[in-house]
Amino acid sequence: MIEYLKYFVLLYGGLFAITNPIGAVPVFLSVTHDLSWSERREIATKTAITVVVTLVVFALVGEWIFKFFGSSVDAFAIAGGILLFKMALDMLSGRLSTVKISKEETEEFSEEVVTLEEVAIIPLAIPLISGPGAITTVMIYMAKSHHVSEKATVVASIAAIGLTVWLILCSSNRIQRKLGRVGIKVMTRMMGLILTSMAVQMIINGIKGAFGL
């Protein structure tokens, strides 16, 4: 039980750093600036649900994707590590990774008239929160989980991330008031530092597995 709890904390911490929901607060506020609190809560709910569904689906079908494209888990781990490292460098600079969403895309969605469903799914859930880095990570962790309890732990960590995303987005106004833009940038840099170590370790594990070291 303790081992699975440690595994859950490891997965949750890693996914929190990758998804970086606190860093998504300014984008959430910019695309919902003219909406009521109830509408923002509705968007937060749909965003969190989309994040969970997206990550769970890719976690479950990841093994078949590897087989379909003839790719090994280790090769995917190396590629994923490089992707995460690029994201981490952007986050260490205090900005949202362009791997997730560009500044032009953010401005485009803040200026366009879109439905609540469109805002919740794109750009908030995909690719801002459950972007390529998060999808790659859950696919690799699920592929390396050999027991049902381990796979259930991966799904549980995704569900916990969804709940965290919902809580943070619903509290976005208070978070921005408390932390301010500087505080959010500091938090993003901290997540970037954690993500850097994860990316390097993922590459090392991938190289070890590929070459049988």
UniProtKB/TrEMBL annotation:
Domain of life: Archaea
Protein location: Cell membrane
Keyword Flavoprotein recorded: no
The UniProt record lists the keyword Transmembrane helix: yes
Main location: membrane
Membrane topology (UniProt): Multi-pass membrane protein
Cellular component annotations (GO), alphabetically ordered: plasma membrane
UniProt keyword list: Cell membrane, Membrane, Transmembrane, Transmembrane helix
InterPro entries: Multi_antbiot-R_MarC
Protein name: UPF0056 membrane protein
Organism: Thermococcus siculi
